[in-house]
Amino acid sequence: MIADGAIPVCVGGDHSVTLGILRALARRHGRLGLVHFDAHPDTWDEYFGSKFFHGTPFRRAVEEGLVEPRRMIQVGIRGPLYGAEDFAFHDQHGIEVARIEAVKEQGTAWVAERFARLRGGPVYCSFDIDAVDPAFAPATGTPEVGGLTSYEALVLVRALTGQALVGADVVEVSPPYDGPGQITSLLAANLLFELVSLLALQR
Ligand SMILES: [Mn+2]
Q: 127 C-alpha vs ligand 1 centroid, how far in Å?
């Protein structure tokens, strides 16, 4: 499908789905730039002995050469660290992290400037709904308080205008956990609308 020019827009579900998408896209386009919205870096090496689960896809993607670390940025990272080495992988590979503190203190326009590092090739956008505060998006498996507002999320996705997007996903939405009005699904649907609109501009 991707070989025929299809542009994947995927919905999840567990964040581990992104690795397969990146493999398929890298086969067609070569190494990808990556903008990754998430509360968590998802760059663990393994979890209970497993190399493949929703906390490891971006380490695998860098190791497999699917993503160009110098054209990778993670946005919204927060919450407790599990060890002193949690960001050693980032430092080693030159991956940029826009932690939530910086996003809130410097503002969305500052984050948009950081997106300049994505330029120079094809870009994939992976949006874990837990990047957004659970006040706006409670229906997810590992919620972290103190996140993006729904408006900040929209502004930051729109800030990808002009990037050479080749695919996108919105993941980690779990509708059974949702609150009144299905607010998480509502936000996820709107983020997908924004991403599909950006991808349509590429045609
Ligand atoms: Mn994630």
A: 8
